[in-house]
Protein: Protein of uncharacterized function (DUF416)
Organism: Phocoenobacter uteri
Amino acid sequence: MRNPIHKRIERFSTWQHLAFSLCICERMLPNFQLFCDVAYSKEDKRSENAKVLQNILNLVWEYLTIKGAKINFENQLQKLEEIIPDTNEFDFYGVFPAEDACKAVAELLHSIIAGEHLEQSILVSQISISTIISYLETLEDREFNEQELKALPEIEQELDLQWWVYRELKECDKRDIELLLELKSQLRESGISNIGLKFNQ
């Protein structure tokens, strides 16, 4: 599915690309949190995996908002790789949005490590939209065409969110710490994922 925002973010600077991707990853986090809650018992150390993913996102927010923050993102990528669920191990749908959330965060980390900011931002945006498409097609047990996808309220909401983040960021000539903290706060407070799930912590 074509997303015109991808052309617009070409003009973004590095910190804007990272912030754009990070906001989308935040929206996918509840999918992983709920998956861990359902998939692992409290005795299973993997029940802590959701905290690992949230901590990685916290560190990226730190990297963007605290001047001179020194973070080993190769190490964070390694931690992420250890918690990605194997879709063959689980027989319920929630494993797929959970895996997608990890994939999006992996792209964000690769972006920081390798410096491929535009390409990775577009990938994160596409992963989030494809999670929604997959979720809705599974619910309806059919494939949607391009026209039908554009009319779906869930897709509209996701595109609206991506445009909202884009508009907020494009207003800034230089890195705006206050804006970044406000975006983080709003996304965390809503706590609603891209497929409409809410994780009550």
In short: The chain has nine helices and no strands.
